[in-house]
Amino acid sequence: MVVLFVFLGWSAWFFFHTWNALSGVAMSPLGWLFMCLGVVVTLAVGGGLMALLFYSSRHNYDR
Predict the structure, then answer these.
(1) What percent of the chain has a predicted confidence (pLDDT) above 70?
(2) pTM for this structure?
């Protein structure tokens, strides 16, 4: 657990350090579009895989 909390602390520090370092960088509307599409596709793939997991579990394909 201690190692996981160390990783969590390090990732939070890295996130805030990087966020502050990139505060002056502007992103074009096309960049925002692709970022939003990336989030949507990632959520769709994750949701689809979870749906397949539950479907296979309910129909006893996991045996």
Answers:
(1) 100
(2) 0.62
